[in-house]
Design a protein that fits this description.
Length: 167
């Protein structure tokens, strides 16, 4: 019983007394005597394992659209209206499952299968790249170059270029 009364009186003492502002104690220490280590974000938060990366494949169902079978060219053909695409698509996935970056080399075509190799030639520069995306979605255009391809060929505008479809 004494313990209960003592505990109640101590609690009431704590509840009804006003806390006074105490000065922080001042002390001095020898820096060489104590070994301080820096606390960083890495020491407080353990590293989490990176999540597994999953390839996302985009499936597009287009109704009432007839796709022409591509013709395999043994000679160079000329496209007078090729363009490039990029700024709004960086960081997203292409229709073939690739991550679209500023440096990716590839081309978009409506009906060629993903991975089909296509050679492009412009001003004594020739490069062979795969089909990595679907498009272009501008009427009358056959190809859309990626940003990295247009920089490689110095053809970052809408205009003519020579191409050859390879298998």
């Amino acid at each position: 019983m004494k313990r209960v009364l003592l505990a109640v009186s101590f609690c009431s003492f704590l509840l009804f007394t006003q806390p006074t502002q105490a000065k922080a104690p001042s002390f001095s220490y020898d820096k060489e005597e104590y070994n301080f280590t820096a606390i960083t974000k890495e020491t407080l938060i353990p590293k989490q394992p990176e999540p597994k990366r999953v390839k996302i494949r985009e499936t597009r169902i287009i109704k009432n659209l007839t796709l022409e079978k591509p013709t395999l060219y043994s000679k160079w053909a000329k496209d007078h209206n090729i363009s490039w695409y990029g700024p709004g698509f960086y960081g997203k996935r292409t229709a073939c499952g690739h991550a679209y970056t500023k440096t990716i080399l590839g081309v978009a075509h409506r009906s060629l299968p993903c991975g089909t190799l296509v050679a492009f030639r412009y001003k004594n520069k020739t490069i062979t790249v795969p089909v990595i995306d679907r498009g272009p979605y501008v009427k009358g255009r056959i190809w859309d170059m990626s940003g990295g391809l247009c920089l490689f060929l110095d053809h970052c505008f809408t205009g003519p270029i020579e191409y050859k479809i390879l298998r």
